[in-house]
Amino acid sequence: MGKGDKKSTRGKIWRGSYGKTRNKKTNRSHEPKKIEKKSA
């Protein structure tokens, strides 16, 4: 358990990888909505 451990959160942060213990934050509900511009 530590920086060298592939499965621990600290190890994932240290390596810069993602997985089950360190998920990428992807919320589909909080995506910016596209605003349509009305031409004058």
What features would you describe in this structure?
With 40 residues, this protein is mainly α. It is built from one helix and no strands. The longest helix is centred in the first third of the chain and has 7 residues. 0% of the residues are buried.
Short description:
The chain is mainly alpha-helical and 40 residues long.
Determine the strand fraction and express it as a percent band: under 5%
What order do the helices and strands follow? H
Question: What structural category characterises the helix and strand content?
Answer: mainly alpha
Binned, the helix content reads 10-25%
Q: Give the strand tally.
A: 0
Mean pLDDT: 78
Shape: rod-shaped
Low-confidence stretches: none
Rg (C-alpha, Å): 18 Å
Our count of helices gives 1
Major β-sheet profile:
none
Distance between the termini: 62 Å
Topology record:
Blueprint: H1 9-15
Keywords, please?
40 residues, single chain, rod-shaped
